[in-house]
Amino acid sequence: MERARWDDALYAAFRAKDARFDGRFFVGISTTGVYCRPICRARQARPEHCTFFSSAAEAEQAGYRPCLLCRPELAPGNAPVDAGSALARKAARLLEENCGSGQSLKEIAARLGCTDRHLRRVFLEEYHVTPVRYLQTAVCCWRRIC
Ligand SMILES: [Zn+2]
User: Fold this and answer.
1) Cα dihedral 74, 79, 68, 28 sign
2) For the chain, which terminus, N or C, has the lower number of CB atoms within 10 Å?
3) Whether 114 is catalytic
């Protein structure tokens, strides 16, 4: 009973792709033989196909292979699935550094090697606001009054 309730909570976190649980547990999916991090965007398995592990090693021992998208066997931050949020964080830093210099989002995107449309999308995903909105509320703006 306890076990079942715990699994329900983990499954809910997996469904929600709750980043707070990233690295805290791993999900083995019996239909594919692959295990994932809770934030993985690739899979959404039914609860009866999910087995939860507290470490990647445990999942491998149970016979699961690491997912190629979220790379649960790597340190968080090194997987393709993390690329978007890493980009958003870099952009946020650039925005803060260049606050008030009138640099456009296009220029910042170009510096990061992507398009402004792509940047806006990953930014929204990471911060739930647009880059412009973020800039308006960024701490630097309080200081420099831009
Ligand atoms: Zn995955």
Assistant:
1) positive
2) N
3) no
